[in-house]
Design brief:
Keywords: Signal. By secondary structure, the protein is α+β, with helices and mostly antiparallel strands. Helices cover about 20% and strands about 30% of the residues. It folds into 4 domains: about 270 residues, Neutral Protease, domain 2 (Orthogonal Bundle), CATH 1.10.390; about 120 residues, Jelly Rolls (Sandwich); about 80 residues; about 160 residues, outer membrane lipoprotein receptor (LolB), chain A, CATH 2.50.20. It has 15 helices and 36 strands. The chain has an 11-stranded antiparallel beta sheet with strand order 31-30-29-28-27-26-36-35-34-33-32, with helices on one face. A 5-stranded mixed beta sheet has the order 2-3-5-7-6, covered by helices on one side.
């Protein structure tokens, strides 16, 4: 339905008061304007044809109107609506339904709106203003809407609080019929008379806007043309079945599983609210400032630092069957010199303290929260979005209840710093995972890794070939609403470079060198080779050891293994390294199978920074030349007891060199030929 046409349905209908039994037949007037199989169009004035005999356009439009009525009649009949039980007035002679063309203006007592149903005695009159005959001919939904009103068994609807369901039903059915003729492009954009922050049954809106909800239920039910389910008597006998009841009583229909299957209001309403993601100002702000909200609470979440946790709370209240809307603006302060990858945060939005809390559901932009009351978003603190999004807290009880009452709640916003630590090494064709620091990767879904070499899956990167791979993190803004309309727009995306990494062809290793001695860890089998200048090499894996001499592999009796492990812990290679940062109680025996990898992690910038902060000091580092060439290296000095330990890092914050008591310890990452003990 085109919005301009749909909007005028607000003034369409004065739904007929219904008497008991069949409508009274009306004597044929001597003349009429046009007729079809089931309908005849008369002039509602002394002029027998309202001038149609002298107005070819009027005559043509009249015939087209009847064509639309016949099509609507056949369609409704096919969907199971009781078309022959219509209380529209009929001719006595052949029982054809009578339509009336009204030459009078609304000011002179004529029809108000594009078309209307009115009352005369026991039956309904369906009037079309003569000035709107072209519109009625061109818009099939118009008369279908009015004909549905003649199927509704109303008793006393004038001024009735139950008017809202009659109008919602008639408008849904009329709109569906219009879609068959190309008028359905704005199916979910009824920019009129719908305020989600009022109870769904609120009679201020007369129910016109609620048609979109009924169509959505029908669509999700798989009901024919989205409205066949509305042919059930319960939707047409409202004024009889609910006579004298409050408007909220009609919510029973939307909770009745016999009518709507499992798509009860508590299940469907949050989805519908999510679909209707729009905060355009209203064209007529007298009743509501926005198309779908009387007003919207604006709050600003101010995060003063990206390296510390932060929490804010906002009070809210939602009426039963209604929504509390909030727009959360965002202000983030990150350190000017911080690398973007060091400003990442997770933000939790959680509804707390509702009473009853289980009646509440959290909706953010176009999305119903993954958990009913909590949603988690990743945030790039170096380039944050302007908003955390348009948040709605929906108050829908699990079963229909009486009139609306407020459910007061608190929306809690919690931000915490997180990080991504790269794998020690990357190998062509093999997946390697970044380590999540401070968060569960499943918490949020607005992020993804991207690689220019190979593929990614969650936190895992699988390079396609050796060489290098650039890995970045893409973080989507939570905002999916557009300037206008309801369709989601492409989200703004922030790109965070995580680094450029070497990719090994065959093996993935970390090498630690102290003078001429080397220790090389390989992930293929998870063991370490310790090689000395003498040519002898020791090999450690968890629970096992091997020794290689120039003559070949030496057999080692089981009792001798522990003795060898104990002796190696005091070798020059180990030296004082076992007492590393944050590892004063280090277990040398456990370290030996992966010592190069263990110490690479232990002296990483992340770990050194943590150790320094725990000691109550500030971490500082500066740009430094890269050992062996390259770019992006930095240097810091870490104090361990009385000793100052200079450490140089590569662009991925991995240690390249550390100096202990004037003894340089070198780290390298790549692939080298090392032996593999038999059976390993």
């Amino acid at each position: 339905m085109k919005p301009a046409i749909a909007a005028m349905l607000v003034m369409l209908s004065v739904v007929p008061a219904r008497g008991e039994g069949a409508p009274e037949a009306v004597a044929d007037a001597p003349n009429y304007i046009a007729e079809s199989e089931h309908f005849r169009l008369y002039c509602n004035a002394g002029d027998h044809d309202c001038g149609a005999s002298n107005d070819p356009a009027l005559a043509q439009h009249s015939r087209e109107m009847l064509d639309n009525m016949e099509a609507a009649y056949a369609w409704l009949d096919d969907l199971g609506f009781p078309v022959e039980e219509s209380h529209l007035e009929r001719a006595r002679s052949d029982r054809k339904f009578r339509l009336r063309l009204d030459p009078n203006s609304a000011a002179n007592g004529g029809c108000v709106g594009d078309a209307c149903t009115d009352v005369s005695g026991a039956d309904s009159k369906l009037l079309i203003p003569k000035s709107n005959v072209a519109m009625a001919a061109n818009d099939p939904s118009l008369l279908a809407h009015e004909f549905v009103h003649t199927l509704q068994r109303a008793v006393d609807v004038r001024g009735s609080d139950r008017f809202w369901m009659d109008e919602a039903t008639a408008t849904a059915i009329g709109t569906s019929f219009g879609t068959k003729y190309g008028y359905g492009v704005d199916l979910y954009e009824p920019k009129y008379y719908m305020s989600f922050d009022r109870p769904f049954y609120d009679v201020v809106s007369d129910g016109y806007g609620n048609w979109a909800y009924l169509l959505g239920v029908g669509q999700n039910l798989g009901s024919r043309d989205m409205v066949a389910y509305l042919s059930k008597p319960q939707f047409l006998n409202i004024e009889e079945d609910f006579h004298g009841a409050s408007p909220s009583a009609l919510m029973d229909l939307l909770y009745d599983k016999d009518l709507v299957g499992g798509l009860t209001f508590d299940q469907e309403s949050p989805k519908f609210v999510a679909k209707m993601n729009n905060i355009e100002p209203s064209n007529d702000p007298g009743d509501s400032a926005y198309h779908y909200y009387t007003d919207i609470e604006d709050h600003t979440v101010s995060i003063p630092a990206t390296d510390a946790s932060h929490e804010e709370r906002f009070d809210g209240s939602a009426l039963t069957y209604a929504v509390a809307p909030m727009r959360l603006k965002l202000d983030v302060t990150a350190k000017p010199d911080a690398e973007p990858r060091d400003t990442l945060m997770m933000v939790d939005l959680e509804v707390t303290d509702g009473s009853p809390r289980d009646d509440l559901t959290l909706v953010i932009e176009h999305k119903q929260a993954d958990k009913p009351l909590q949603e988690t978003l990743m945030l790039d603190g170096s380039n944050p979005p302007d908003e955390l999004g348009f948040v709605r807290v929906v108050n829908v009880p699990s079963a229909a209840q009486g009139d609306a009452s407020p459910n007061r709640f608190e929306l809690e916003v919690r931000a915490r710093p997180i990080g991504l630590d790269p794998p020690g090494c990357l190998r062509a064709g093999e997946p390697a995972g970044f380590a999540a620091r401070g968060f569960d990767p499943e918490e949020a879904d607005n992020w993804r890794l991207e690689a220019d070499n190979g593929t990614t899956d969650g936190l895992s990167v699988t390079p396609a070939h050796s060489g290098e791979v650039n890995v970045s993190l893409e973080v989507d803004s939570p905002v999916t609403r557009g300037q206008t309309g309801l369709e989601p727009v492409t989200q703004e995306t922030s790109r965070v470079e995580l680094g450029r990494f070497k990719v090994a062809q065959d093996d993935c290793m970390v090498r630690l060198s102290v003078g001429p001695a080397q220790a090389t860890y390989t992930s293929d089998g998870s063991y370490t080779e310790y090689r000395t200048p003498s040519g002898r090499a020791l090999y450690f894996k968890q629970g096992d050891i091997a020794v290689y001499k120039q003559s070949g592999w030496m057999p080692i009796p089981a009792p001798a293994k522990q003795m060898v492990i104990g002796r190696i812990s005091g070798s020059p290679l180990m030296g004082g390294l076992a007492q590393g940062a944050l590892k004063e109680d280090a277990d040398t025996e456990a370290i030996l199978p992966a010592m190069p990898l263990e110490f690479s992690r232990r002296f990483s910038w992340k770990n050194i920074r943590k150790a320094t902060l725990l000691s109550g000091k500030k971490t500082q580092r500066s740009a430094a030349p890269c050992p062996g060439g390259g770019e992006g290296c930095t240097e810091t000095v870490f104090r361990m007891g009385p000793h100052a330990i200079p450490i140089i890092y590569d662009a991925q914050d991995r240690p390249l060199r550390a100096v202990f008591k004037n003894q340089p310890v070198e780290f390298a990452y790549g692939t080298w030929p090392i032996r593999r003990p038999p059976g390993w």
